[in-house]
Amino acid sequence: MKSWRPLPEQVDLLQNIVEAASELLRDAPGAAAVPELAAAPAAAALAVPSAPTAQEAPAFSPPERPVRKVQIEAAPKAKAPEAAQTDDDPKNRETQAKAAVCRSQSEPPDMTASLEKAPTALKHFLDARSVSAIAEGFRYLLKCVELHEEESGKVHGKEVLPYQKIRSLPGLPWKAQQVWQLLDAQVKKEDHQAKPLQGKSLAVVGAGPVGLRIALQLKLAGAAVTVLEKRCEFVRINRLHLWDWVKQDLIQWGAKIFSPPGGTFGADKDYCHIGISELQYLLLKCCLLFGVTVELGVEFRDVVVRSGGWVAETEPPLVPQELRVDALVCCDGAASRIAKSKGAATIAGGLGKEGQAIGVVANFLNGKTSSERNLRQFSWARQFNTELFKKLKDKVGADLQNIVYYRGDESHYMIMTPSKQCLVEKGCLHTADSLDGAPLLRAENVELDNLKSLAQEVAVHFGLPTEFTPEQSVMIFDFSDTKRHEQAMLFQDGEASTPPLAISLAGDALLEPFWPTGLGCIRGFLGAMDAVSCLGTWFKTKDREQALGKAEAAYRQLKSVDAQTKDMTLKPENEWRVEPHTRYRHM
Fold this sequence. Notes:
The protein is α+β, with helices and mostly antiparallel strands. It has helices at 8-27, 42-45, 90-106, 118-127, 131-152, 162-166, 174-188, 209-220, 244-252, 276-289, 337-341, 370-373, 386-396, 420-425, 448-461, 520-541, 544-559, 566-569; strands spanning 70-72, 201-205, 224-229, 239-241, 273-275, 293-296, 299-306, 309-315, 323-325, 327-330, 346-350, 358-365, 378-381, 400-407, 411-418, 474-478, 481-485, 489-492, 501-505. A hairpin with a 3-residue loop joins β14 (400-407) and β15 (411-418). Pfam families: Rossman_Mical.
C-alpha cells in the first residue's frame, strides 16, 4: 500500500481546523481539563517532515505602543526637498520641532522582517481587532515584500497593488488564497475597467463605514486616495442593521474571511447586522490591501490654493510633503462641518420637535456561554405586539415604542425607544422640559445610573445578560430631528488659473437617516457609488452643470429609498452598478 503524503494546502487546512478546535475547546465549560491540541499540530500528526509544526513556526507579535497618530500607506513617500531655513528664526525652530513630533508619531518602529514569519503576520493582519494591530501587521508584510524582492531580484512595478505584492510571498496559508480571489474579482468587474479617475488625487474626510467604502470605490476608479480621520482608533460597538445587498457586498469584500466579522457573518437570515468598529476594521484592511493611504489622528481643516493647485490643510500637518487634491469627499458625519463651511444648506427632517423620539442603547458583555448562544434575536414595534409592551410596562415600568436586540460575538446590543415621561418617572431625566434653549439630553439633565438600571431591568425581562461592556455601557440620544443637505455635490472656486474643486458628500454628512428605518448603510453605500459616478463625469467632461445635474437627480432618488418603497425606487439588485441609472428606476 502506498504511503499518503498530503499536499501543502491540505496541511494548511488541517492546521487551521486544529487551531479553530483548540479555540472552541478553550472557551467551552471545563476547558481546563482539555489537553492542549497545539502540542500535536496537524503537520506533526501526519509526519510530514517538510512542513514546520505550529510550534516551530516563527512567532509574529506586533509591538505594543500607544496610538497618537498613525499613518498607513502602501509605500513610503518620497521626501520633499527641505526649504532653506535658519535656526536663528524662532518660527522656523517651532515648525521643525512640530514636524519632528509628527514624524516620530507616524513612522513605524524599526522591525526586522523575516519571510518565515510572513504567514503568521498575515494571519495576525486578517484577524486583527485594533487599528494599531492592523497597521503593524500591514507594515510588517510590506517589509517582507521588500525583503523578498531583494532576495528574488524581482521588483514589482508602481502600478501593482499591495495585495498583489503580498500574494507573491512564499508559504502563505490557504486562507490567503480566498482573500486574493475576492480582491481579484473586484478588480476584474466590468465597472472598474474604465478608470475614470485615473491620475486624480482625492481626499476622503472621515474613516467611518461609508468613508472607507467610498475610498475603495474611488481606488477602483483609478484615483490615488487618502483618508483623513481625526480619531486614532475605532471604538464604536453599536450594531448596524444591513439590507441584503449590503450583506452581499461585504461578503464580496471578505466579511466571512476577515475576522471580525468572521465566518458566521450573515448566518441569521432574519437579522443581519454588524458592529460599527467590526465593519471599519474589515474595510480598513481592504483599503490597505488596495493601496489607499490612511491618516489617523489627523484632522482636516480646509483646502487652499497653493502653487496652482489645491492643498488639504490638516492638524497636525502632513509630513514630509503636503497633500495635493483634485477633489474632496466629505464623510464627516451628520451636519457636516466641512459642507457647512463650503456653503451647503442644511434642512431639518424627522419628527421636528425635540424629545419626540429618544433612543437608549445598552451594550452587555457576551460571556460566550451556551445559554447566551441560544438567545433569540428580536425586533418589536408596539403597534404589532401591544400585549408584549403592556406586560413590559406593568412589570418594569418601561413605556416603549420599539425594542431591538442583536447578539454580537463580543457583546449583546439592545436599543429601545422609551417615552419622555417614562424616563422622568424612572429618574433617568430630571425634567422633561428644555431650559433656556438648552438640549433636553444635556449632561446635567441625565441621571446615568438610573438609565443603566432601566436598561438592566428591561434586559432581565427579556432574559438577556446585564453586565455592561467596559467600552460602552449605555447612551441616550434624540433622533427626533434629523438633518440633510440640499446638495450632494458642490464646487469651490479658486484663483483664475486654478480649476474649481469638486466636493462630494456621502453618508450621514449628506443624509442623516431616521434611526428606526435602518437606512444608514444602504443609503450610505448607494450614495458612495453616486459620488464616484458624478466625480467621474466631472473629470471626464469638465462640465460643472452636467456633474451637478447628475448628482441632483441621483440624490433625489436616494432620498426616497426606504424599506416600504424600495421596489418602486430601486431596480433589481443584480443589475446594480456604479452608474446611478443602473440602480434607480427613475433616473
